[in-house]
Amino acid sequence: MKKILITGGAGFIGSHVVRLFVNTYPDYQIVNLDKLTYAGNLENLKDIENNPNYKFVKGDITDADFINNLFKQEKFDTVIHLAAESHVDRSISNPLEFVVTNVIGTVNLLNAAKQAWGCSKDKPVPADKRFYHISTDEVYGALGDEGMFTEETPYDPHSPYSASKASSDHFVRAYFDTYNLPVVISNCSNNYGPNHFPEKLIPLCIHNIKNNKPLPIYGKGENVRDWLYVVDHARAIDVILHNAKVGSTYNIGGHNEWKNIDVIRLLCKIMDKKLGRAEGENEKLITFVKDRAGHDLRYAIDSTKLQNDLGWKPSLQFEEGLEKTVDWYLANEEWLSHVTSGNYQKYYEQQYVTR
Ligand code: NAD
Ligand code: DAU
Q: Is residue 237 lining ligand 1, measured as CB closer than 6 Å?
């Protein structure tokens, strides 16, 4: 029996983590805390919302009093912390919001857990508690043509988003070193799959292909990302939570590097077939636009430690995962129309004016 606080559980990855835990562990109590920003959507969890081991709490991790009270009331023994501002382009136009949510929000949670669990350097690390922080490979910076990020790669963040995530990782480790808070961190590569907000490359392009709109590729499309199906990330989080040693770090990745332009060409091909369009039709939508400022050239994760120590490996090939993802978006037009209503259009118009 565990009582787990999952923050950011209404978002893209968080919703898959919540679903996996609620369905796999009927004897655990799962509390999903989410502010429901533009990226949080309870429709992502409709299938499990009435489950007796699941509860949703609307709240803000930047509100320290609220967080402290929640810890007092709920007596969590485990935290899986995903709540964050997650989009690199938004961090370039509004860095402070990323500092407030990703750094201060994380420190509020660390303080609340430290207080609730009575952690201090004078006492042993509590073995029955865990604070699991979900982070990104972007903290390691950018690779050239060769090499991969390992758990020992020095931090070298370049965007305000990755700088805020790196800072939060440092705070998490500092709470282990200073207060014996029982922490674990994982750093994952790019996720894709259902429920991904259509501001990120893959869901944006699925949405635009469907609507015959331009597919904006930054620079020459030569930047490389290492793509992992989101359910495989959730599976890795499950394995790490239950098996990782306190104070440890694991890299999670798909061993699946693709240039952006090749991802989009593959997507166009899949969607030519799915939408009954002529071969090559969708590729005509590809439009090269001004590059992202400080655009990291290449990410590639070495997840050998996770594979060897804990026996995790990705379950899906990229082509198969991408096809599944396209099928999900085509079958869930209502979800897409809800998340693209409101100020979605305004955000995009602003993006293109400033580019
Ligand atoms: P997302 O933007 O889809 O979801 C973030 C969630 O956090 C949303 O539900 C939002 O409402 C919630 N949130 C934001 N601010 C909050 C606040 N102040 N209080 C409470 N809730 C708040 O993000 P995602 O892509 O699902 O990423 C989840 C986590 O995983 C993030 O920490 C991110 O850095 C990390 N990560 C993401 C990826 C990726 O490819 N998407 C890869 C590696 C790591
Ligand atoms: O690596 C993990 C990170 O992956 C996570 O920590 C972030 O939360 C997540 O958003 C993601 O960051 P990226 O910046 O890599 O993802 P994004 O989908 O925004 O961009 C993927 C690549 O595609 C990147 O090289 C930029 C490029 N791109 C993106 C968009 C939105 C385009 O060429 N055109 C676009 O319109």
A: no
Whether 329 is catalytic is no
Cα(287)–Cα(214) distance, integer angstroms: 6
Cα(182) to centroid of ligand 2, in Å? 31
Cα(346)–Cα(87) distance, rounded to whole angstroms?
Answer: 16
Domain CATH number, residue 73 = 3.40.50.720
Domain holding 96, by residue range, is: 3-192+228-255+300-316
Whole-prediction pTM: 0.97
**Overall number of domains in the chain:** 1
Among 105, 85, 84, 81, smallest CA distance to 186 is for 81
Residue 327 lies in a domain: no
pLDDT in tens, 208-242: 999 999 999 999 999 999 999 999 999 999 999 99
Instruction: Tell whether 148 is covered by a domain.
Output: yes
Does ligand 1 lie within 6 Å of residue 10's CB atom? Answer: yes
Classify residue 166: in a domain, yes or no.
yes
Instruction: Give the ligand with the smallest distance to the CA of 348.
Output: 2
Return the ligand number nearest the Cα of 61.
1
Nearest to 296 by CA among 91, 33, 13: 91
Write the burial class of residue 301 (CB in 10 Å: 0-12 exposed, 13-18 middle, 19+ buried).
buried
pLDDT at 294 over 70: yes
Q: What is the pLDDT of residues 108-154, one digit of tens each?
A: 999 999 999 999 999 999 999 999 999 999 999 999 999 999 999 99
Residue having the nearest C-alpha atom to atom 4 of ligand 2:
190
